[in-house]
Amino acid sequence: MPRVTLIGYRGTGKSTVAALLGEALGCGWCDADATLERKLGVTIAKLVRDAGEPRFRDEEETVLAELLERFPGVVATGGGVVLRPANRALLRHAGRPVVWLTATAEAVRRRLAADPTTADRRPALAAEGGDPLAEVEAMLEYRDPLYRECADVRFDTSSVPPDDTVARIVSWLNDARAGFRETEP
After folding, report:
1. CB-CB contact of 5 with 68 (8 Å)
2. Which residues on adjacent β-strands are paired with residue 100?
3. Is the dihedral of CA 64, 106, 151, 143 positive or negative?
4. Percentages of the chain per state (helix, strand, coil), in multiples of 5
5. What is the pLDDT confidence band of residue 135, given thresholds at 50, 70 and 90?
6. E strands of 23-175, at which residues?
7. How far apart are CA 179 and CA 173, in angstroms?
8. pLDDT-based confidence at 47, cuts 50/70/90?
9. How far is CA 20 from CA 1, 98, 129, 162, 176, in A?
């Protein structure tokens, strides 16, 4: 089975889809953020708070390179992995096929609010008193061309159950295996 790398903003379903997709493909899966947290023994939120975002991005880049070099299954990346040009190049070179999961800002905000681990594990979405939805919208717009640069295909998860998203990805992979081609994200 091919390795599949999932990219997309936080809350688009990368970890959930990765677990189901790994099962459907009969291979393992891993979450790059969870791998980073295990490796360092600290949550991403604490790492960013204590050492700063540049240190977190350095560690994220290292973990991505390690996973894409050694892990044969489905990899769910962190939402901001595309911010660094080196990571985008690595995804295009060693992470293919790259599946971009998208969702509306409203769906992302709703999912993050419903996830009890969000506050403990992830940096805050907005400065105190700020509008998290406005920040999600701005980040989605800013990152769109970066995700697009890496993606072989895009699936919107806003109103699609994870099982259906997995079925769509598996179908796309089967078509791609017959003659791999890029599809317009």
Report:
1. yes
2. 7, 154
3. negative
4. 60, 10, 30
5. confident
6. 29-31, 74-76, 98-102, 153-156
7. 10
8. very high
9. 15, 16, 37, 8, 19
Question: Is-contact 10 69, C-beta < 8 A?
Answer: no
Half-sphere exposure (CA, 13 Å, Cβ side) for 169? 34
Amino acid of residue 135: E
Query: Is pLDDT of 128 > 50?
Result: no
Q: What are the domain boundaries of the chain?
A: 4-178
pTM of the full predicted structure? Answer: 0.88
- For 4-178, the fitting CATH number among 3.40.50.300, 3.40.50.720, 1.20.58.220, 3.40.50.1100 is 3.40.50.300
Backbone angles phi, psi at 72, to 5 degrees: -90, 0
